[in-house]
Request: fold
Amino acid sequence: MRHELILHHYPMSPFAEKARLLLGAKGLAWRSVIIPSVMPKPDVLALTGGYRKTPLLQIGADVYCDTALMARVLEARQPTPSLYPASAPLAAPLAQWADYTLFWLAATVAMQPAGAAAILPNPTPETVKAFRSDRAAFTAGMARPTLADATVQLQAALAALDAQLARGTPWLLGAERSIADFSVAHCLWFVRRAGPVAEILAPHAALNAWLDSMLAIGHGTHQDLASSEAVAMAAAAGGHAPTTVQPGLGFEPGQAVTVAAVDYGTDPVAGTLVGLGPESVTIARRDERAGAVHVHFPRQGFQIRKEQSA
Ligand SMILES: N[C@@H](CCC(=O)N[C@@H](CS)C(=O)NCC(=O)O)C(=O)O
Reply:
């Protein structure tokens, strides 16, 4: 049975906007589960075992963490138009720069007080404070840019992106749209929503025209789903996408491991290794409500550690 695509997300999340645009570009129908933007997130953790970042892609009892992996999953499900065209070999590395570097510049600039007031859905002093303290814990230990650093570094990035597009190609890496376009677009989508702060985009005509084209892709067809129903769908799925542990990558199938992001939101997820390759790692775990779940992560940006078996 081919399970539905379920995106767990919330409206103001930039990485969720990346996933929504990817679904729109691939023309895939999906179910929309709105999750909390701050902890606690009991239904998310039932599915992931600890990973709390937004968004998640659920397909039956398979849970895909991180938009870099989601893009690969959507590509496999609907190969055309490709997110990794042969004409753009730098698409994945440029996307990674955008997701890791440009994102924090954009988020820091957009979430300064004047921007946060436009972005947060209900910006009372209490909700702003709660949001900021949630994100302080989420990014503890990470060297986040200061507003002064982020502003000047974002301006330099915007000028470079604008100059690249002003050479006359419709997409960042040429005639074909690639994953890099999506990773840059979600960052600038967030800045555009930041009220007066969006002015920082104004000098860049080619970049603004390109962003208009990216956002015109839209989100495709989707229907709402309650998160409790999504958890029940995982429990009822009865099977997982096939995975194998490739030899020579340092781990054995069936090993007890933890997998954690290395940048921020580094909560480890514990389970049994059932899949490993150069692009992804998959662990099996059991949850009281979600049942036997396979949680998938990209290999880039994540650390696998061997644990003592229980
Ligand atoms: N590398 C991750 C980054 C995801 C991320 O940082 N998402 C932000 C929202 S845009 C987040 O998780 N914020 C905290 C939360 O939603 O709990 C990806 O590509 O999915």
